[in-house]
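quick one: alpha-D-glucopyranose bound model?
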Amino acid sequence: MSHEPWWSSAVFYQVYPRSFADSDGDGIGDLDGLTARLEHLTYLGVDAIWLNPVTVSPMADHGYDVADPRDIDPVFGGMAAIERLIAAAHQRGIKITMDVVPNHSSSQHPWFQAALAAGPGADARGRYYFRDGRGPLGELPPNNWTSVFGGPAWTRIVEPDGNPGQWYLHLFDAEQPDLNWEHPDVFDDFEKTLRFWLERGVDGFRIDVAHGMAKPSDLPDAKDDVKVLSHSDDDPRFNHPSVHEIHRGIRAIVDDYPGAVTIGEVWVMDNARWAEYLRADELHLGFNFRLTKIDFDATAIHDAIDNSLAATALENATPTWTLSNHDVGREVTRYGGGEAGLRRARAMAMVMLALPGAVFVYNGEELGLPDVLDLPEEVLQDPTWERSGHTERGRDRCRVPIPWSGEAPPFGFSTTADTWLPMPADWAALTVEKQREDPDSMLSFFRRALKMRRDRCEFAGGGLDWQAATRDTLIFRRRGGGLVCALNAGRRAMALPPGELILASAPLVDGKLPPDAAAWLV
Ligand code: GLC
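yep, here:
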């Protein structure tokens, strides 16, 4: 009997609900669509779902602008639909983890509406960051912070008397005002939200912007060179030390529900600072994004893996691995696109699945979907596009709906061809239906790899040792079970290390591993 918690080696499958499966023909995916497609997840062999936000939202940032955290948006099917999903997933032995968004609310949240109506100095304003502007008439924002999506992080409001007045802080879209966690209502309400979902059988949470929430009290200016959709460790907008008290509070609640897991989105690069979030009384798991930031390069991959292992080791925590998600783009494209991109993505899936810890697979990754780089400008929906003054196209490229079946869009995703983002006609070759029939497809391959990872004792235990390899190749061996993983990121075929070959991402050539390929040996 293992005493490890279920999530310590789990494969989480990230479902971007708008894009997974549409049950009611409005062109937007929903929860009943997901429930009807759970068989795909059983077929693939995943342990848990991470569901991107489905709570009530005006959808300015597709659910990351929450107007009611304790109800499901009608577009996703309402409360009854999530109850059906939880029951059906649990029946299949699949856990459900949900996104929660503590850093900000929607501007349509009743608290923010009350704050606007209440006027300067009112307690209702204290739940957010309202400040007077600088300049003689308060016409300048309180500091120089920018929104992660571009443009200023402050928006000036019209006061109830009709005059321009205070400014409020929003690190993301203007429809996403930042909550002030120093106001006691904010934690109390978040506690209600966590308990609400845990009582309904949810198995844990992915905590959005887990390194946000706390701000330095004097809100000092940031450096001038802050970029859209990224930030450094010395950025005053994020990672303020008092955030850890919030995480301890969250953990104390979640600990009332044995087995429930918290996974933080922690964009902090310094290992010591990052690991603070994984202390025994804070988050269970934290995303490490280094593998999403690098090319198909052996040295960079080696460093990213070492870095993640070293960071988690600081707190004896479980490593997590992820190659892509709804924010960072798909790896097939990052590795060069086309056939080479696909081969490399397949090889990197094997590297990821060979590593000790929890793995996150983003829906469509198992099909080898690329980013859709040529979406027409008029269909772009990510707020980044508008807020960056049309200089950053944003993240829609990796959010295009999943192709299930058939020869033309919407490929079984919906009954309408008018899907919320258009689907490329050449995805006909990538449908789940086609790939299930083809033993050499990415999907069949993923399924085989996941089954081995689940069934074989060689994948047991934490830790790994690197073995001698050339500059363009990698070989590591799992310390516990002894699995060996070899990756060839070079241009010439690679001699395999000793052992019995159990899986290769491409056929061997004269007994050697070709370029852009990986192998598992025992
Ligand atoms: C996180 C989410 C991203 C969202 C942002 C604001 O980074 O992953 O999709 O836009 O938070 O909530």
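Residues 61, 64, 101, 172, 208-209, 265, 326-327 surround alpha-D-glucopyranose (CB under 6 Å).
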